[in-house]
Design brief:
It contains 16 helices and 10 strands. With 411 residues, the chain is an alpha/beta fold. α8 crosses α13, α11 runs parallel beside α12 and α12 packs across α14. The longest helix is centred in the C-terminal third of the chain and has 28 residues.
Length: 411
């Protein structure tokens, strides 16, 4: 009886957290009562006609992490997956280590060695045909290679990082289902979640909370008109989330940055290539990533995101970015960011969350400096980090995907 009551209370608690029926410009798929087993069963049936899988770009340093072991366990619950692709640029020893680590994966998989000498040789041939990406590197490039290889076999695939501490099989299931289910007709789904650690009572998501969110509001005010592209970005509950699913056909038509502006860059390409009706965002609940201190790496992520944002505003709205534009934008950004900090503080106090308001202000000032530094970098070279879409790459070398598939795997 006590066990039954406990389950009932947990169910009621979940419903309380989920009582948000609101729909916005981008369709929201809430988790009121999603059933993992039912979704798995349906995806298993659909996998015959619409093969689907997962792409995981990762770093060599993540091979021994507890988060990766949790991800492998979660994927093993997803017996509907046709294939998992792990993409990484590593040394030969790290590649061999990756092969050992993923032996525990029970679903079909492939480890893609993105910087293998044979891969570089293929990309040199592509360069000789007039399309040079040999000077680019990073997570985006690894993902670009994996997309090309995976698209040979899959109708659709989910993509996520390898640092998700709270991972379960429900994650790929939730984001894949709206894209694979033909009754829904979505081309792209994006996860959103609460970046709150309920054990330590800590609020995370600092780049979005303290930089991207107030920056989008500042840009709307700075431009003196309602930018449709900025309105579109603001419609996503968590635009910086890296958990997405997409059809192969659409993925092959997207240009993506090779740097840490990947998430904003992908949304910018979707704005150009897909109708709002074909995009949704999915509730992933409370979520736990590996957290980083505000450091050079985190500030670079913010800077790369800004560069992608400025480039897209120039393309879509014809915005003339200048030194004067950046300086005035910084002033407006500070005002909106300070307002956000006041609001987050109120939320934290009411929910008994740990919240260091002084540290938040310090972080905001660091982001304000990034705004100027990254903005100046954009003025010097606005397109340096952009990868071509796969349709263009295939037109330059028709068998490029097949060549890369062969080159990424060591026999």
């Amino acid at each position: 009886m006590l066990l039954s009551l406990s389950k009932k209370l947990l169910k009621n608690e979940r419903q309380i957290f989920s009582m948000d029926f609101n729909q916005e410009k981008i369709t929201i798929v809430h988790d009121f009562c999603m059933d993992f087993d039912s979704l798995k069963k349906r995806l298993r049936t659909l996998s015959r006609k619409y093969p689907h899988g997962v792409i995981i770009p990762m770093l060599g340093s993540e091979l021994g992490s507890p988060a990766l072991q949790r991800i492998i366990e979660g994927l093993n619950d997803c017996d509907y997956l046709n294939k998992v692709f792990i993409a990484l640029s590593v040394t030969h020893d790290e590649y061999r280590e990756a092969l050992k680590v993923f032996r525990n994966l029970e679903v079909p998989y492939e480890v893609i060695w993105c910087n293998r000498p044979e891969v570089n040789a293929v990309l040199e041939e592509l360069k000789n045909k007039g399309l040079d990406i040999t000077g680019l590197s990073g997570k985006g490039k690894d993902l670009w290679i994996a997309i090309g290889v995976a698209s040979l076999e899959l109708y659709a695939f989910a993509m996520h990082d390898a640092d998700i501490v709270s991972y379960s099989g429900m994650l790929p299931t939730k984001i894949l289902y709206p894209v694979v289910e033909p009754r829904l007709d979505f081309f792209f789904s994006k996860g959103y979640y609460a970046r709150v650690n309920m054990e330590s009572k800590t609020m995370y998501g600092r780049i979005y909370r303290l930089f991207t969110c107030p920056l989008l509001e500042a840009l709307q005010e700075k431009l003196y008109y309602r930018s449709e592209f900025l309105r579109y970005l603001e419609a996503f509950r968590y635009p910086l989330s890296g958990e997405v699913a997409i059809t192969s056909d659409l993925a092959l038509n997207l240009r993506i940055p090779c740097d840490w502006g990947l998430e904003i860059g992908m949304l910018a390409e979707l704005f150009r290539n897909a109708s709002y009706k074909r995009i949704c965002q999915v509730d992933l609940g409370f979520y736990e990533h590996k957290h980083k201190e505000i450091s050079e790496g985190l500030l670079k992520t913010a800077g790369d995101s800004l560069i992608t944002l400025l480039r897209t505003l120039t393309e879509t709205d014809g915005v003339d970015i200048s030194e004067a534009f950046l300086l005035s934008l910084q002033v407006i950004y500070r005002r909106f960011a300070q307002d956000k900090i006041r609001q987050y503080h109120a939320d934290a106090v009411c929910n008994n969350l740990e919240y260091d308001r002084h540290q938040e202000e310090t972080n905001m000032e660091a982001f304000a400096e990034v705004l100027i530094d990254a903005g100046r970098e954009y003025l010097r070279n606005p397109v340096v980090s952009q990868l071509p879409d796969w349709i263009r790459a295939i037109s330059a070398m028709p068998d490029l995907r097949e060549r890369l598939k062969e080159a990424t795997i060591e026999n």
